[in-house]
Amino acid sequence: MKRFIFVSLFLSIIFISIFVFPTVSAAPDFRQISQETVNFYTDFFQPILQALFGGSNYSGLLLFEKLLFFIILVSIIYLVIGKVPIFDGQKGVKWIIAIVVPLIGVRFINYDWMYSIITQYMVLSVVLTSLLPLVIYFFFIYGMGGDYSYLRKILWILFGLIYLGLWSTIDNSGQADIFIWTVVAAFFFAIADSKIYFYYLLQQQKSAGTLNRAESVARIREEIAHVQNLMRDGHMTPKDGEKIIKNKLKVIEVINRQ
User: Fold this and answer.
1) 45: which of 89, 125, 138, 159 is 20 to 30 A away, CA to CA?
2) How many CB atoms are located within 10 Å of the residue 123 CB?
3) For residue 38, what are the contacts with CB-CB under 8 A and spacing of at least 6?
4) 9 and 25 part of one domain
């Protein structure tokens, strides 16, 4: 049923676009058609949304942002009401409350509050997009670096130096703060690499829900034997090998205590 409604709505939009906006030539200007389509739906829905969200000012200012906040609030309030026992089986009542409550709030919200909320979402977007490269690089290092501590530290130092170079060439103070804190995080990860790798291994063992304790310990002991073979054959220094073995033995201890 939902798929039928979606397809019907999509075909209706195409139908309206074809018959409402005539082509100006044999070779239609798709940019003009799309612009006219946007203008049509904007002119159609804007008075309705102004009446719903305009409040006492009946204004189109921040109208789209109010619509987005309304959608977010409806979703959250509906989920919260669904947890209240008194509304069990009252789907219609839940939808009425979920729509009316945010509609009243968004309709009469002060524009100063609107800008304050928008600023918070801007900050959230900057923080998340700034952290994303660091998170991706983190899992790249511990996925590729494996048991080679020196390789992981080199990669973290290289990451920090790159951001240090970006920090030294940027004029914007906000971007400079992001870059310099990323440098600090990179060098912290390089210094605390052994501890971080230990907890990374521990989390991997916890997330492997299909393995029981004995199977996990047996697999780690196989990894320890492999490291010992590398040390014996001269492919790994005793210092790095002993550090790796020490971390893996700690993981075994934690698993046995669970």
Assistant:
1) 125
2) 10
3) none
4) yes
The candidate with the shortest Cα–Cα distance to 74, out of 54, 52, 94, is 94
Taking only the tens of pLDDT, the chain with its 258 residues reads 556 555 565 656 655 555 555 544 445 577 888 888 878 877 787 778 777 787 555 556 678 888 889 999 999 999 999 888 888 888 888 899 999 998 888 888 888 888 888 888 888 888 888 888 888 988 888 877 666 778 888 889 999 999 999 888 888 887 888 889 999 999 999 898 878 887 787 777 666 554 566 777 777 888 888 888 888 888 788 888 888 888 788 777 766 665
Domain check: are 60 and 45 in the same one?
A: no
Q: Rounded CA gap, 4 and 9, in Å?
A: 9
What total number of domains does the chain contain?
A: 4
Instruction: Please name which of 223, 207, 222, 196 lies closest in space to residue 255, comparing C-alpha atoms.
Output: 207
- Specify the pTM: 0.58
Does 243 reside within a domain?
yes
Same domain (yes/no): 127, 174 = yes
CA distance 188 to 182: 10
Range of the domain at 17: 1-52
Beta-carbon contacts of 124 under 8 Å, excluding residues fewer than 6 positions away, are none
